Amino acid sequence: MTFxxxxxxxxxxxxxxxxxxxxxxxxxxxxxxxxxxxxxxxTLSLRFIFEPTLEGFRSVLGDSIFRxxxxxxxxxxxxxxxxxxxVAAPAAFALGHLPIRGxxxxxxxxxxxxxxGIAILIPIYLVASRLGVLDTHGVLIVLxxxxxxxxxxxxxxxxxxxxxGEIREAAIIDGCSELQVFLKIMLPLTSSGIVATxxxxxxxxxxxxxxxxxxTNSFASTAPLAMVAFRSEYGVQWPSIGAAAFIISTPxxxxxxxxxxxxxxxxxxxxxxx
Amino acid sequence: xxxxxxxxxxxxxxxxxxxPYWFMAPAAIMLATVYLGPMIYAVMTSTxxxxxxxxxxENIRAGLENYKDVLGAPSFWQAVKITLxxxxxxxxxxLTLGTLLALLLDNELHFASFFRSIMLIPMVITPAVIxxxxxxxYEQEQxxxxxxxxxxxFAKVAWLGLDHAFFxxxxxxxxxxxxxxxxxxxxxxxxxxSNLMDAARxxxxxxxxxxRYVVLPHLVPYMLIAAAFRGIATMNDFDKIxxxxxxxxxxxxxTITVYTYKIAFSSFDMxxxxxxxxxxxxxxxxxxxxxxxxxxxxxxxxx
Lengths: 274, 303
What we know:
Chain B: Its main location: membrane. Chain B: Belongs to the binding-protein-dependent transport system permease family. The complex is a heterodimer. Chain A has a domain at 64-235 and 250-267: MetI-like fold (Orthogonal Bundle). Chain A starts with 6 loop residues before the first helix and ends in a 7-residue tail after the last helix. Chain A contains 13 helices and no strands. By secondary structure, chain A is an all-alpha fold. Chain A has helices at 7-36, 55-61, 64-97, 103-114, 117-131, 137-161, 165-173, 178-189, 191-207, 210-215, 226-233, 238-258, 260-267. Chain B is mainly alpha-helical. Chain B has a domain at 81-254: MetI-like (MetI-like fold, Orthogonal Bundle). Chain B has helices at residues 2-45, 65-72, 74-105, 112-124, 127-138, 144-151, 165-189, 194-202, 207-235, 239-244, 256-267, 270-300. In chain B, helix 3 crosses helix 7 (165-189), helix 3 runs antiparallel to helix 9 (207-235) and helix 8 (194-202) runs antiparallel to helix 9. The chains are: A mainly alpha, B mainly alpha. The interface between A and B is large, with 103 and 100 residues.
């Protein structure tokens, strides 16, 4: 022990390293946000110090198409979340608490989760065009809700399993039906898990791109598609693109920061016990 | 009379055993309709020569011809190769970086929670947006990366050109995936048996030996599961690639998903497209079989 850093010095140095890495890691995103505040003239210059302008934001928010896409995203993501929670919560409750052999169903849910989206895209496109539901909010909501069911059922099942089975048994003895147990006892006890699941579903629906690209034309197009539209419409108008990208990503980034504690469990689900 | 009682009893029991299934019915119906229905339709379509722009062609039987055509096409195997290479390099890179970051974060640090918040952002941010800001960084004339290179006295690099586009795509995906590995491996690190570590220390193992013989064996299962999860996600990647390169230049970044999409919406040959898609399903399911088995086992155990 002739030359060692004291514990607190080592901790400080590592902390500073950590801080630097965090800033470097965020750079690609931060750079885009900064671009949104630049004027068209010095878009790509390397300077960090520049006179910020809202030109980019003004042109994006003044664009009725972009506003419509954002509104579509809000409608589709919100309704998707509602549908998923309504359908997944009872299933997760049954799998976690009711006396059934749910293994077959669980396996089915797992396999379905692995099926690549592109594989069912084409048949779904064909069916949707026959039914005349291309470019509607409804088709996106039904699809997004179904895509998110397996994950939501798995996540929620974990939260329901956290509630001791004795609570349900006691309620049954007191004359509650399973439905009452579910609605009046289980839902309130798992509310934080349900909120966390809802946030996940919302984020997934908000971010979805492939099906929105293939199944919508403009009426029901969601915000991520603005990234395609801008590319052709504005050419190299980076401030507008940066502003649009910032607006589109803000809701999910806010969720990530605010809900940090809840999200870690879902994000690492299946890989980590508990 | 006793028969009547038994009947009522069994009726009640049937009701009681059926009731749980009502809770699962809506989910089961939705999943079956949206997944099984289209899958069956895809199998049927893949045995026809249906081209959307040729009315009546949906009735031309093709047997297994589409599958033969696809499996005989070099462009298909090229896409398979790119997909597997992309998945392998991206997962290896983000696994390595994620492990290093997790080892750093396993110390008691001052800004740990701030750092963790930052690392959540790449995991949730819209992939379409990720592609756009990497495109901005990679921009050839005045993009940040090339400006930095020039400032340091190097020549500009055509990041999205033929030679580098593949790596540009790998870096973008690793940037998104590294935090996931970091979180999973951090959880692994925090569950290392401290008695075992103490014992190794007493036996005179240095910090590297302790990592090699105590920590690493404990982490391997975490790494494998995380790699399987992200690997499957990366194989299915479409948004980021489509917006960064559209599969180009040439076919340099055309993964199977991009390949399928391009063929579907350029040739409108539905028979061929569904055949490609179904072969891809088989590839993904076979690759994910070990992960499925593991997940199924842990789930069946009462939680």
